[in-house]
């Protein structure tokens, strides 16, 4: 498998190079005539999380206007609300959980609806928080948790994630299982919207949760929880939120889809351009219209500076990333296939799907390529597959997904 390196990513193709040399001409070409966006206004849903940043910046910094559209961000209360409004057509696109979008396509996250992943919005930046009650019992990590869980009746401890097929559920399940805890048999899991995580832990509804920032940092600040694991410790540079929509919407508005991805891609580049831009992004997101929280809960982890709440501090080598010279945004087929393997592993799918065909249909690399050309200085990888090594040493590269899904000691798939 050919790995897509940062160096290769920086080597723009001749077409992209032309875009860099003649930006005015290229941008005009994408915003006029037959290439003009079909829609002037694009409604994009988001959940108040740090990783909605590219949508916020695209709208507030005017990157949307550059490509002939106006992004109207719509704040939603839960991932279920995002799902329902997206499927009903009340939203044109959304900042959405990778696994939620794939679950919709398969009919296991709601009414089966053909979906499209236009781009990845970010990598990394989520975490698993455990309660200070567990810390006081000497529990600091998954291994310590396993010892405690094994001494109690099944279901004694409750953990929360944000959606049954979502990324947070998959990170939580993977982390628990890596320590010998069956997330379906040994503990109880519940769904809680991200902004309600801290409050629910405070009143004792669960002893742990997996969610995006700033809610893990908020739990530390409120002294009710500590970070037991980051999601990047589970899978370094994992895909997280994506820009999702319905397949039919892309078919009806291909130029608008390209313009939307272009604007968000430019926003990603702006955010990652400097620490100052990241700090400004944190200031923006802290406002009432976005996350309605304190800037201090956002800035540290956005800059990769971590404090686990128990005295450990470190500069993370895989912090939340939005651009990374454009590499973050590419909708890798292998990323989508990984979520399918986990759906199969945990019995959410009763049979093996056509992994490659589904990923190829959902992950719209064609739209991404058009947008990358419009933005300039970005080129596609040589293969839509990439190789990653997860926390347990398991290598995922998209090869033989059926065997991969069945190769875990703890699973719910049939023999």
From TrEMBL:
InterPro entries: NrtA/CpmA_ABC-bd_dom, TAT_signal, TAT_signal_bac_arc. Residues 1-31 form the signal peptide. The keyword Signal applies. This is ABC transporter substrate-binding protein. Keywords: Cell inner membrane, Cell membrane, Membrane, Signal, Transport. SUPFAM superfamilies: Periplasmic binding protein-like II. Belongs to the CmpA/NrtA family. The keyword Transcription does not apply. It is found in: Endomembrane system.
């Amino acid at each position: 498998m050919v790995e897509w390196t940062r160096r290769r990513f920086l080597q723009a193709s001749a077409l992209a190079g032309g875009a860099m040399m003649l930006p005015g001409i290229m941008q005009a070409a994408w915003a006029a005539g037959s290439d003009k966006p079909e829609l002037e206004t694009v409604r994009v849903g988001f959940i108040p999380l740090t990783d909605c940043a590219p949508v916020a910046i695209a709208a507030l910094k005017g990157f949307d206007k550059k490509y002939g559209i106006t992004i109207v961000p719509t704040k939603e209360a839960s991932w279920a609300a995002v799902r329902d409004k997206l499927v009903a057509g009340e939203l044109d696109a959304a900042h959405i959980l990778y696994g939620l979008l794939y679950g919709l396509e398969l009919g296991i996250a709601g009414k089966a609806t053909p979906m499209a992943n236009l781009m990845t919005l970010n990598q990394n930046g989520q975490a698993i928080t455990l309660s200070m009650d567990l810390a006081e019992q000497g529990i600091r990590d998954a291994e310590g948790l396993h010892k405690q869980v094994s001494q109690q009746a099944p279901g004694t401890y409750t953990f929360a994630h944000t959606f049954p097929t979502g990324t947070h559920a998959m990170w939580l399940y993977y982390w628990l299982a890596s320590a010998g805890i069956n997330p379906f048999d040994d503990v109880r899991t519940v769904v809680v919207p991200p902004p309600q995580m801290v409050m629910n832990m405070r009143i004792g509804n669960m002893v742990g949760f997996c969610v995006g920032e700033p809610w893990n940092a908020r739990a530390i600040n409120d002294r009710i929880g500590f970070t037991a694991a980051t999601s990047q410790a589970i899978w370094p540079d994992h895909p997280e939120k994506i820009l999702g929509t319905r397949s039919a919407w892309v078919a009806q508005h291909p130029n608008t889809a390209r313009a939307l991805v272009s604007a968000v891609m430019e926003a990603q580049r702006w955010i990652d351009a400097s620490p100052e831009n990241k700090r400004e992004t944190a200031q923006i997101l802290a406002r009432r219209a976005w996350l309605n929280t304190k800037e201090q809960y956002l800035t540290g982890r956005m800059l990769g500076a971590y404090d686990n709440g128990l005295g450990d501090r470190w500069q993370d080598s895989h912090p939340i990333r939005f651009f990374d010279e454009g590499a973050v945004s590419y909708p890798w087929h292998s990323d989508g296939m990984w979520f399918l393997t986990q759906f199969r592993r945990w019995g959410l799918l009763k049979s093996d799907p056509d992994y490659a065909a589904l990923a190829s249909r959902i992950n719209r690399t064609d739209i991404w390529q058009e947008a990358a050309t419009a933005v300039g200085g970005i080129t596609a990888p040589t293969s839509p597959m990439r190789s990653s090594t997860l926390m347990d040493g398991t290598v995922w590269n998209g090869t033989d997904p059926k065997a991969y899904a069945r190769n875990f000691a703890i699973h719910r798939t049939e023999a």
